Amino acid sequence: MKVPRSRQRAAATLDLGGGRGVTVWENRHDRVSYEAPRGHAFSLYLAGGTGTRRLDGAGAGASGWPGAVCVFPDGQPSEWEITTPHRFAHLYLPDDRLRADFARTHDCDARRLDVPEITFADMPHLAAPLAALARAASAGDVLLADTALSEIVARLGARKVPLRGGLSPHILRRIDEWIEAHLDEAIRLSDFAALAALSPFHLHRMFRASRGIPLHAWITERRIDRAKSLLRGTDPVLEVALACGFSSQSHFTRTFKSGTGTTPAAWRTAIKGQ
Length: 274
Hints:
The protein has about 270 residues and is an alpha+beta fold. It has helices spanning about 95-105, 125-140, 140-155, 170-180, 190-195, 200-210, 215-230, 235-245, 250-260, 265-270, and strands at about 10-15, 20-25, 30-35, 40-50, 50-55, 70, 80, 85-95, 115, 120, 155-160.
């Protein structure tokens, strides 16, 4: 997320892959504006905050405190005045990735994701994993960050919305089962079109509506999930790559790092260090 007209300093950052990331910010005596930011943002005030005041929106006039949580949906602008030192953690999540993670975690349609705007609230169920993300950013601990992010997604709520289009739950389950059974193979869109009795074009459009991301991105996420599991063992990285359907070790490494923020070898080293 770009922060214009600000002097705030990043004390720690951690790339979580796929456009996701956590940053620990420090600031004092400043004015900060977020203008139509891309992605959802979850914040936890780690220290200070009583001199941080929101200037716009429904939360105008509110001030923070250590432990306060803020949530900003995708595209939500905000303006702030900081008069005393503070330190806070920001988690950034692209809309499509968050919806996809939500759909998988909660086994529901991605369009049911509920991310309400919240300005300074006491929310221990989000504060705890956000604090863990702050520690992970400071230590460069990708495994701690991965666990904390999963906890946040699991604790998000669902909303009741009328759903038009998309795929039925039983078709989505059939697709997921087919993916798991064929992850070590080349997978084509036509394979799933036959499963769903739809044209490839309509399957692509309806899958994205239900899962939040395109089918090819969903398959890549499943390949990375399996790779994480296999990397806990002793198989060479090349064998892990082939078992997960990657064409080569270099292809696997590029894709894994893009999706997680770290390489397969570094992931395996971190696991062994637990």
